[in-house]
Design a protein that fits this description.
The structure is a single chain. This protein is of the alpha/beta class and about 190 residues long. It has one domain: 3-Layer(aba) Sandwich (Rossmann fold), CATH 3.40.50. It is built from four helices and eight strands. The chain has a five-stranded mixed β-barrel with strand order 3-7-6-4-8. Helix 1 (about 30-45) packs parallel to helix 3 and helix 2 packs across helix 4 (about 165-190). The protein is globular, with a radius of gyration of 15 Å. The N and C termini lie close together (about 10 Å). About 50% of the residues are buried. This is 5'-methylthioadenosine/S-adenosylhomocysteine nucleosidase. InterPro entries: Nucleoside_phosphorylase_d, Nucleoside_phosphorylase_sf. One of its GO terms (cellular component) is cytosol. One of its GO terms (biological process) is L-methionine salvage from S-adenosylmethionine. GO terms for molecular function: adenosylhomocysteine nucleosidase activity; methylthioadenosine nucleosidase activity.
Length: about 190
């Protein structure tokens, strides 16, 4: 088992970061640009053995995932750039080892592709949407560091009234899940 101090936990905001209990944390900022830049800089300085990207997300109404549902990302899809994949990839497949680790911690959690867009509703072929996942995973991939994105549902993407979004329940679920996720990631990281 790797020492948990070698695991980097990344979230867009301080509200999504659980208090560190031996692991490193990075508040990468909201959106794909800040997330990629901050993650790349942190990887260069900290040299983590694995990255756990956590946070809240929206889901499509048709998927029927209730608030506070934890979702394990099997891949991150970037929806803001429409160029051929030979010019810029738009998908990062998550390490199967890290997906298995997260599934050990939360065996009932759905395992799905998670879309990344800089705007709400900017994804088209994913049931879960956030703003930083692809950027964090791509920065990790380019540095040769395994990474996984795990999200907790806070809202339906189609729900425009943010007063109805379940932020507090989602933040609480992220904080509760983080220690178990870090422990499982550390078991398989080398």
């Amino acid at each position: 088992m790797t020492n948990i101090s070698r695991i980097l936990v990344v979230a867009a905001t301080d509200r999504e970061l659980a208090a560190a209990a031996g692991w490193r944390t990075l508040c990468c900022g909201v959106g794909p640009v800040d997330a990629a830049a901050a993650t790349a800089a942190a990887v260069a300085l900290a040299r983590p053995v694995a990255i756990l990207h956590i946070g809240i997300a929206g889901t499509r109404r048709a998927r029927a995932l209730p608030p506070a549902t934890l979702v394990i990302g099997t891949e991150a899809r970037y929806h803001d750039l429409s160029v051929p994949s030979h010019l810029a990839p738009s998908v990062v497949v998550t390490s199967p080892t890290l997906v298995a680790a997260a599934a050990r911690a939360f065996p009932d959690a759905p395992r799905l592709a998670i879309g990344t867009s800089g705007r709400i509703g900017g994804t088209i072929d994913t049931d879960v949407e956030a703003m930083e996942g692809y950027a964090v995973l791509r920065a990790a991939q380019m540095a040769g560091v395994p990474a996984i994105e795990v999200r907790v549902i806070s809202n339906e993407i189609e729900q425009e009234d943010r007063k109805l979004w379940q932020f507090e329940a989602a933040f609480a679920a992220v904080h509760a899940a983080t220690p178990r996720l870090v422990e499982e990631v550390a078991r398989c990281a080398s």
